[in-house]
Amino acid sequence: MTARRRRRAPPEPEYQPGQLLDWRDSSHWSDRPLPCRYCGFPAHTRDSRMKPAHKVCAEEALTIQAAEAQAAYHQEGTK
Ligand SMILES: [Zn+2]
Asked: Which tens digits make up the pLDDT trace of 23-35?
């Protein structure tokens, strides 16, 4: 039986694009498009440090950072 491994809900995907950050606040919006710090294309949106960045680009960067941090943590743990 595999019942022990079953959970009530199917596993959620770890990351869903567009749902990580909440930039609906007006402080994340500028009327003046500036090159995104990640991809270089014009962006109206600003990240938490007020740098021009697309939300999806910032989320992707966060995801990569999180994965790297997790990888580093696992490496530390096995030493
Ligand atoms: Zn971008």
From this structure: 898 999 999 999 9
- Mean pLDDT across 9-25: 69
Q: What angle do CA 49, 52, 56 make, to 5 degrees?
A: 95
Where exactly are the structural domains of the chain? 19-78
Q: How many whole angstroms from 11 Cα to the centroid of ligand 1? A: 29
User: What's this model's pTM, rounded to 2 decimal places?
Assistant: 0.66
Strands 42-45 and 29-35: antiparallel
Residue 63's φ and ψ, nearest 5 degrees, are -60, -45
The Å distance, Cα 61 to ligand 1 centre, comes to 10
